[in-house]
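Here's what a typical entry looks like (Protein GrpE):
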Amino acid sequence: MTEQQNLNETSEDRVSEQSEEIEEVSAEAKEQEEETVEETSEETVLKELEEKIEETENRYLRLMADFDNFRRRAQLDREASAKYRAQSLISDLLPVIDNFERALKVEATNDQSKSILEGMEMVYKGIIEALKKEGVEIIEAMGKEFDPNLHQAVMTAEDENYDSNIVVEEFQKGYKLKDRVIRPSMVKVNQ
């Protein structure tokens, strides 16, 4: 063999070795690229799953808060219903009480009318006591400062005996059930 042939064979060997190395490096690069793509796609999938989990947790927490609010409102409604259960009955009885009060102001002229008035007064007191047991209170108005939450001004007056904004006359009694006004007092207020 000549030197030229040896050199050619060596060159060919080197070229084949180098091409094998290039193929190996290329294969390794492809594997790394595939792993990177897999890692990237896995990271993307992982991020998407984490976002879905976070969204689901937020929905769950909002639903729990909504349910707690609903339960609290329902409890408050039940308490209010129990507290003010007699309101409609009391509202219906107020005109009857007003009529009793008007009837009790009548002057008795003989023994029979006096005994009837005494009986009416006993019934009236019984009704008032029953209402008090339910939590009904009469709103005090005479001589008090006018309060638009408790009083309904139907007239004004100018009386030097009273200060400004003081109730000088009560036309109709007002009533409260616990802390709720059932009917405001109809009053005349001093200017």
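The domain at 84-190 is CATH 2.30.22.10 (Nucleotide Exchange Factor Grpe; Chain A, domain 2).

More examples are in the samples folder.
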